[in-house]
Amino acid sequence: MTTYYRDPEVLITSAGVRMNGREFRLPELLQVWYTKGTRSWGVIARRGALGLAILLPLLAGGFAVLVALTMDAAIGTTLAMVIGGILLGLAVMPVADLLLERVDRSYDRGSRNLEIWGRIRDGEVLLMRTDDAQRFGRVYRALTRALEPAARR
Known about the structure:
The protein is α+β, with helices and mostly antiparallel strands. The protein has two domains: 3-40 and 111-152, Roll (PH-domain like), CATH 2.30.29; 41-107. It has helices spanning 41-70, 75-109, 133-147, 149-152; strands at 3-6, 11-13, 16-19, 22-25, 31-39, 112-120, 123-130. A four-stranded antiparallel sheet has the order 1-2-3-4, covered by helices on one side. Strands 5-6-7 form a three-stranded antiparallel sheet.
C-alpha cells in the first residue's frame, strides 16, 4: 500500500481515503473536484495594515529629512532632524522582517475557503474544507495522484 498524504485529519493511500471523518475506498470515488469560496476581505485588509505598518515609519523618516533640509534652521537643528529621520526610518528594519514574515504566511494560507468534493454512487460529498492554501494543494495533488489509473493497478 502506498501512502500519498497523511496528517491528523487526512489519510490518502492507494487503498482509500479518510477525510472529514469519513472513509472511502478509491473505486467509490467516481469524480473529484474542488471549489473556491469568496475572498475574505478581512485577510486582505490585515495584509494592507501590515504593509502600512512597514511603510509609515519609512515615510515619516523621509518626511522628517525633507522638512529638515527645506527648513531655515540652525545647522545643529537641521542635523538633528536629519539624523532623527534616518534613525526613524532605520527603526523599522528589525520589525519589518517580522511583519513581512506574517504577510508571507498570510499568502501561504490564502484568502478564501477551499473545498474538495467527491461524487460517489449516492451523490456528492464534501471531502475537505480549509482556508490553508498550502495544505489544500498538497491534499488535492495527493488525491489526484491516488486516483490516476496507473496508481490504481
